[in-house]
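Appendix B. Chain record.
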Amino acid sequence: MYRAMVKLFVRRPWLFPAMMGMAWSARARHWFRKPPFLPLPPSSYLRWRMETAYGDPDAQPPLEDLARFLRWAQAIRRSH
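Structure tokens predicted for this chain:
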């Protein structure tokens, strides 16, 4: 999943604020206490999202799906 995010960032750098907003809103509790000391979502959350979206917890979403989700999540955060 993180490789897809890097690919998406390289291809569409303007989505970086949406990526950071999503990472911050889905960050693990106490993320600053264990390496890599980044506000990343828990792997269990990512697996659950892939299971609910694609029926497979190990699914790799197409970049367009990822970009669409990031734009949608950003719009939702801005509307509140």
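Further analysis of this model is presented in Appendix C.
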